[in-house]
Amino acid sequence: MIIHKFLTHFGLYLQLMGRTFSRPERMRMFFKQYVKEMAQLGVDSIGIVLLISFFIGAVICIQIKLNIQSAWMPLWVSGYVTREIMLLEFSSSIMCLILSGKVGSNIASEIGTMRTTQQIDALEIMGVNPASFLILPKVLGLITIMPLLVIFSTVSGIVGAYATAYIGHIITATDLTSGMQHSFTAWFFWMGVIKSLFFAFIISSVSSYYGYSVEGGSVEVGKASTNAVVSCSMLILFADLFLTQLLS
């Protein structure tokens, strides 16, 4: 029963994506919507990304310094571990998990409300492909802006680590800088960016599917938003496991 339900949803999702990735009727209107979605989904999320990343970077540095550091370890370990965690997992995977709650629910509720108020039916009557008109700008907009959010998250986390050095006096700035520069591998940064592109597609497309498939009233819109966030979170975790193994 569960497998049958999964295969049904997966087939409907593939059909919707097939309709989504078709050439827009009006490129000027599409570009305008594309820029709007980048601002709504990405730019409006910069604040929460910077805030969360700042404190996570600070907490990681403090925890490593106080609980793992010992006389047998060099002083730069805290900076090194903080940099690796921010680059490899937090700025891409964990941050996308957080954004799936904000962005995913936003997309699902917006498209779901349009479905319940018959706006999508009106677009179909006018001869407009609603999947391409509504979903494609969201998918491409989030994919475009997500690498920028990853960069902001990494920088904010490192700034948070330095805040512990200058404000909390947990570690000296010199030791922290030595750890940040120790054995730096540029591929780790690009790995996070590549993973974020896949996560952005998962968040935007899956959330759009749940919103587009709403049947009923406002209660069903709320359920669709919840299901979208849960599904996106699970798929991001599975994709993270697969991509980490593939890119490492």
Explain how this protein is built.
With 248 residues, the protein is an all-alpha fold. The longest helix has 40 residues. It is 84% helix and 0% strand. Helix 3 packs antiparallel against helix 4 and helix 8 packs antiparallel against helix 9. The protein starts with a helix and ends with a helix. It is elongated and about 70 Å long. It is built from 9 helices and no strands.
Query: Termini, distance in Å?
Result: 36 Å
Average pLDDT value?
86
Percentage of β-strand residues: under 5%
- Give the tally of β-strands: 0
Q: Which structural class matches the secondary elements?
A: mainly alpha
Uncertain spans: none
Write the layout of secondary structure elements.
Layout: H1 2-20, H2 27-42, H3 46-68, H4 77-116, H5 119-125, H6 130-166, H7 173-181, H8 186-212, H9 218-247
Helix pairs in contact: 1-6, 2-6, 3-4, 3-6, 4-6, 4-7, 4-8, 4-9, 6-8, 8-9
Brief write-up:
This protein has helices at residues 2-20, 27-42, 46-68, 77-116, 119-125, 130-166, 173-181, 186-212, 218-247. By secondary structure, it is an all-alpha fold. It is elongated and about 70 Å long.
Which features does this protein show?
248 residues, mainly alpha, 0% strand, elongated
